[in-house]
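Example record

One chain of 128 residues, shown exactly as stored in the release files.
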Amino acid sequence: MQLTESSEMYLETILILSKKHEKVRSIDICEYMNFSKPSISRAVNTLKDGSYLEIAPDGGITLTEQGEKIAKKIYERHTILSKCLVFLGVDEETAVQDACKIEHDISDETFDAIKAYVNKFSSEKSEN
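Predicted structure tokens for this chain:
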């Protein structure tokens, strides 16, 4: 199953929320993403059917190994791209918004090059 940008965003959101909350629930996702309960319910069920997440009897949502792998990849892209744009002089709010758009479409090759640049630039900056 090829994931859509929207599905990737849900997985990334669940990962972020799982770092903040002991248990992630649909309502947490609704509040974080500012989406309606029916939208979240449809997305969560689609991701569950695709084996990207599991829903416990008490409503707790956890990522499967496959879901977590994708979520971490998207989250890393978001973080690195945001840093890169800030390094280039973009204000942080705009950098975060733009990184969110870019993270889903960028090739692995281009992302790896940007990541290497950001890591090199970060280490050079911390040495000075």
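Notes: The beta strands are 53-55, 61-63.
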